[in-house]
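Give me structure tokens for this 233-residue protein.
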Amino acid sequence: RSPFEVAPPSREWSEALLGFAWLRHLRSAGLTLSRKNGRALVADWIALHGGSHPVSWEPSITARRVISWLAHSPLILQDADHGFYRSYLRSLSRQVRFLRRVYPIAEEGYPRLLIAIALTYAGLCMAGEQRLFQQSAKRLIQELRRQVLSDGGHISRNPGMLIEILADLLPLRQIFEARNVPAPAILSATIDRMIPMLRFFRLGDGALAQFNGMGATPADLLAAVLSHDDAHA
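Here you go.
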């Protein structure tokens, strides 16, 4: 059975499945079978949840899925037939339209920032979306100004938010470079403020201080983010 037909054992499990961030593991495997499995699972989601689903189409989960599909499109589309390619693009376009529609009423804070990031990804990566890119870049700038404070901390004062946001902003900056599109100056400036604050929140054992909603530290993600800090500020 498809995992999208299984009753989820927890809300967290469902969010992780429907966000498709796990595609990175299939891509890292570098196997033909991994590509086929990734493509089959995307096709399953389109068939089973692509029309409507109460959890799949929550704005923040949709934003995470759009980012994942775009980031791992080489895995998904390599050796794909034309029918799947068209189905994938139709679904992706529909999800992007949904995010554009719900952005003004999205939940304040990180969920709205995540949508702005996802739409900026789409504007950069999808052909013929110059208008979307211009609009989403403006919204991204607005949300970064609103949510990332002058000391580099997130407005929620949750240390874990820094990891989540940096894990999306760092690849986004690389996409700007890859497309030869000048990135907004605030993007690099925000990253440069956030990484020292992330180091500030670390305790002696390397974990982040637990307050304002911070739970267990995702050590692998934290290490990946800090590997981009050349200054070690």
